TrEMBL record:
The record marks D129 as: Important for catalytic activity, responsible for pKa modulation of the active site Glu and correct orientation of both the proton donor and substrate. GO terms for biological process: carbohydrate metabolic process. CDD domains: GH43_XynB-like (cd18617). The active site is at D16 (proton acceptor), E190 (proton donor). GO terms for molecular function: hydrolase activity, hydrolyzing O-glycosyl compounds. This is Family 43 glycosylhydrolase. The keyword Transmembrane does not apply. Keywords: Glycosidase, Hydrolase. Pfam families: GH43_C2, Glyco_hydro_43. It comes from Agromyces sp. G08B096. Residues 352-542 form the Beta-xylosidase C-terminal Concanavalin A-like domain. Belongs to the glycosyl hydrolase 43 family.
Length: 545
């Protein structure tokens, strides 16, 4: 019995993975930044197939993301299971509402999740990346990271630990600074996790942390302490996982931010973030989650033993090989599309017909706007109604935008959309990296325009007349090349008209300090008119693996 996990196991921007196991099931949580719903939870029983089960932040009034700039918001969370409940700790960074460290719990990872409880000092004073250890002696420990001030060198950080009271949901006792990174001069020691391990794993408490910044120099290191407050001594083999030494030609880079889990069968695994590269820069998918096998030698974890780097295929020896599922995967979108199924398989087809009572679980919106009906079901059967809430996608505002993460470098994105035609309104498809960088295929005043927006500049890449009524829009993506087409949706098999082509390297997260990958979705902007709307009949992203 053996099955192959295809990396990235969580494709599309889903960085900073944290993972825990409860019985036979593994649960992973990943970062979501300014998007809502936030902090997706995925479940797997074999480490090969991962299904979305819900989001930790699934009510718009749980947290105020309304003023969170792109790549701010919900950073690196940790998920643990203790005392019959799932615990997630996280920081909300930036924005105009409350920010800092918080804890959320749920009996069922599918939800409902509690409202967040803000934990005073939970961000360690403007820090990030909280984690929890529920120790075997009944005590609990919270750790995080923050910039050292003053640091012994620029961008030096401190990993700090305090005791956590799981009843009062607050930090107690003294703070202990336990780690600055494995290497002299290391920047951004971050993403810390404390794990109590058995004698077979060397015993004591393991501190897992990354360093080097989340781009090309990212790396994972480990240290051991007798207790959660240290002192910690680094593994002489540090860093234990990185691609920093592989050079610009490496197909996979930015490897780091890992969490460890045992599989209950004697095996150990890590989930880590990594980026697929194209032409030497980050692919549009940004930082994704990869599975890494782990062995133990001399009391230390060895990541990807014998290889030392991430692999696209990872063998899970005890997982059942499901031939039908694997055939489905390699046939990718085609089969699912032909069968007309609402595909939810990661990396293949994402499709929403807006027929059900709820929006597709993977459909994410930009920021929160509680009480504002910006993407609603029910106004027209089988459609979602977008009501513009911003003048343009360049604003740091909640938008009438709903999209899927772009999970593969090759994809075909289509939507059928009809707008009310309010003056100034644009409605259509967008590939969104941030407010500063996006590509729009939008209908405005009877014209379809393909516009690349980069740092305030609008580059028109083509126009075509739009038929009256409902239109179908298409963006065909091949790496950094995008072709845009339009046709009327009022007649079956109408001919397509090419609108234009755009090079979208500016949407890569490389070199712009971005933590996110690209989302592909529908939007409506450009008017405050209360009666303006755009109805979306279908949105689909067919990924070509
Ligand atoms: C996250 C930090 C990191 O908080 O990037 O790669 C930051 N690691 O741990 C945002 O994802």
């Amino acid at each position: 019995m053996t099955a192959i996990a295809h990396n990235p196991v969580l494709p599309g921007f889903r960085p900073d993975p944290s993972v825990c196991r409860v019985g036979d099931a593994f649960y992973a949580v990943t970062s979501s930044f300014e998007y809502f719903p936030g902090l997706p939870v995925h479940r797997s029983t074999d480490l090969v197939h991962w299904e979305p089960v819900g989001h930790v932040i699934h009510r718009e009034d749980q947290l105020d993301l309304s003023g969170v700039a792109s790549s701010g918001g919900l950073f690196a969370a940790t998920i643990r299971h203790h005392d019959g409940r799932f615990w997630v700790v996280c920081t909300l960074v930036g924005g105009t509402g409350r920010s800092g460290g918080f804890v959320v719990t749920a009996a069922d990872p599918a939800g409902p999740w509690s409202d967040p409880t803000w934990v005073d000092g939970g961000d360690g004073r403007d820090g990030i990346d909280p984690s929890l250890l529920f120790a075997r002696d009944g005590r609990a420990w919270w750790c995080g990271t923050r910039l050292a001030s003053p640091g012994a060198w620029p961008e030096q950080t401190q990993v700090w630990v305090r005791e956590f009271d799981p009843v009062g949901l607050r930090l107690v006792g003294d703070e202990h600074v336990v780690w600055h990174g494995a290497l002299e001069g290391a920047v951004w020691a971050e993403g810390p996790h404390l794990l109590e391990v058995d004698e077979a794993q060397g015993g004591g408490v393991l501190l897992l942390a990354s360093e080097g910044g989340t781009e090309r120099h990212h790396a994972v290191s480990v240290a051991r302490g007798a207790s959660p407050i240290g002192p910690f001594a680094g593994n002489p083999g540090n860093p234990v996982l990185t691609h920093r030494h592989l050079g610009r030609g490496a197909p996979v880079a930015n490897v780091g931010h890992a969490d460890l889990v045992d599989d209950g069968r004697g095996g150990w695994w890590a989930l880590a973030l990594a980026t697929r590269c194209l032409d030497g820069i980050d692919s549009l998918q940004g930082r994704e989650t990869w599975l890494v096998p782990v062995a133990w030698e001399d009391g230390w974890p060895v990541f990807a033993p014998g290889e030392g780097r991430l692999s696209r295929e990872v063998e899970v020896p005890w997982a059942e090989d499901d031939e039908a599922e694997d055939a489905g995967r390699s046939a990718a979108a085609g089969t699912a599309a032909a069968a007309g199924t609402a595909g939810t398989r990661l990396g293949s087809l994402l499709e929403e017909h807006f027929d059900g009572p709820e929006l597709h679980p993977d459909l994410i919106r930009v920021r929160t706007a509680p009480g504002v009906d910006r993407i609603g079901l029910g106004a027209r059967p089988g459609h979602a109604r977008l009501r513009p809430t911003s003048q343009s996608l360049a604003e740091v505002a909640p938008h009438a935008f709903a999209g899927f993460r772009l999970e593969q470098p090759r994809a075909r994105v289509t939507a059928v959309i009809e707008a009310s035609g309010a003056p100034g309104m644009t409605a259509g498809l967008a590939l969104r990296q941030s407010e500063a960088r996006h590509l729009r295929l939008g209908v405005r005043d009877g014209v379809v325009e393909l516009v690349l927006h980069v740092d305030g500049d609008e580059h028109v890449r083509g126009t075509a007349p739009a038929a009256d009524g409902s239109v179908e829009l298409e963006l065909a993506i091949d790496g950094f090349a995008v072709a845009a087409r339009v046709r009327t949706a009022q007649q079956a098999d109408a001919d397509w008209t090419e609108v234009g082509r755009a090079g979208v390297r500016p949407l890569s997260s490389s070199g712009i300090g971005s933590f996110v990958g690209v989302t592909a979705g529908v939007f409506a902007t450009g008017t405050n008119a209360a009666d303006a709307w755009a109805d979306v009949d279908v949105l689909r992203v067919e990924h070509v693996a």
